[in-house]
Design goal:
seven-stranded parallel sheet; about 375 residues
Length: about 375
Amino acid sequence: MTITPVEKNMLIVAGDVSGDLHAAGLIKALKKQDPALKITAIGGRLMKQAADVFLYDLASQGATGFVEPLKKMPMWMKLLSMIRTYMETQSPTALIVVDFYGFNHQVLGLAAHRHIPAYYYVTPQVWASRQYRAKRLAALTRKMYVIYPFEPAFHQKFGGNAVFLGNPLLDIMPDAPAKSYAGIQNVKNHPWKLGLLPGSRMNEITRLTPVFYQAFKKTLKEFPKTEAYLFALPNMKDEVFLNLLGEKPHPQFHIVRDENYQLRGQMDYLFCCSGTATLECALLGIPMLVAYKLSWATYKIAKMVIKVPYISLVNILADEKPLVKEFIQQDANADALAAEAMGMFQNPQRLQQMHEKLLKLRASLGSRGVAERAAQNLLEDLNK
């Protein structure tokens, strides 16, 4: 059976949970500005809700680092074949890809070969490692929508057409809650709220959940009224985390789901994985540390190719560096994390100072309405 191509059909591809979030916002903005648009999506559950046609849940298959993605290659090849067929039969008006370079640069190649205009929304952090990729992105895209203010100048050096319209997390995040640590008198018996964010990918969760939990238990020895809240994805069962603890959970340990950031905003301090989560927490003004644990092989490769001195987006963007402590590989252990948390609880003034500096960082990333501005800019560019 032959399917007739839709006149205004865009294909949008995202490959992980954060990409799914940003792509869903862009889909809604595009359809608001041009109701005749038909969006076909490959991504995750949020894109599935926003798009007209959903082809595949790639976000749940995401892999990080250098070694893990190799295991996904058979699935990626099958999906690329599906996309090739789609492009040839449906002739989409445009392709939009979101982050996830390893897969999406191949999708861009398919579009270029078929003369389909292509855009990158939330461009990969090629400024941090493998900068040669910027030249390929410049060749394969009409325009890139970057999310940090220093990126347009970086891409311009490689011939890329990049614009900064603000960070799309600002469209999603609530205002930072009013927070003051000044009135805390009895720090030892204060009911501290400690957030645990071990990540969205299974390899992160497996490595960081036990470390974060044991660090919380060690913190209890000095600050016995501390309550820990592990923030889990909505579609992930409690048993995934409970099985990683190795014991019956402490009664002051809670697994929670918080899609609107209201509970996270109540935290006093956070143990956070590296990645988008650190920026989310920064936008909420919540003091934190960042932990980073990879497989041995992936870490060795990362050390060779990464060109920035910090792993967390907060420290990369902050005027004062480092703003948050980073614990990498063997240093990301329960003793070290607990010691840092206890040092912060012992001195609420340090928490207050970090809170205020994080709010300054938020102000540097633009204002709300990022997806709408990007959608308008993209449609205007497409209609030139």
